[in-house]
Design brief:
The protein is of the alpha+beta class and 120 residues long. It has a single domain, classed as Ubiquitin-like (UB roll), CATH 3.10.20.30. Helix content is 13%, strand content 28%. Strands 2-1-7-3-5 form a five-stranded mixed beta sheet. A hairpin with a 2-residue loop joins β1 and β2. It is globular. The N terminus is likely disordered.
Length: 120
């Protein structure tokens, strides 16, 4: 089951442990211990999601973790609310697997003005 904890510092990439990340209909890829899902995708030259600030502030790498254990770094609440995070929504740049993960790509959060037509 999903467990999250805050990562105090950016993890080291020196560990030899690797986890598999399964995403949508794409082939799985490996993620090293201490490496974010987004960094692993970039290392494998995978481009199914956009890349922005890589620091949890822009929200363009928004994903939903559907299974697996992971740690999460700092993220902007403008892009992932506490309620959404409880449902598995995260930013791939701040997801650090602690075992194999299953994720789904969902893209940036829609702003309220984008979800309403403005017509009365």
């Amino acid at each position: 089951m999903k467990q999250t904890a805050m990562v105090a510092d950016t993890p080291s990439h020196e560990c030899s442990i690797q986890y598999s990340v399964f995403c949508d209909d794409n082939l799985p890829f490996t993620c090293r211990s201490g490496e974010s899902v987004l960094a692993a995708m970039e290392r494998h030259n995978l481009k199914p999601i956009k890349v922005g600030c890589r620091g949890g502030g822009c929200g363009v790498c928004r994903v939903k973790v559907t299974s697996g254990n992971y740690l999460v770094g700092s993220i902007s609440r403008a892009h992932v609310s506490v309620e959404e995070q409880a449902e598995g929504y995260e930013l791939a740049c701040q997801v650090y697997p602690q075992g194999d993960l299953q994720i789904a790509f969902c893209g940036p959060k829609k702003k309220v003005s984008e979800t309403t037509s403005g017509e009365d």
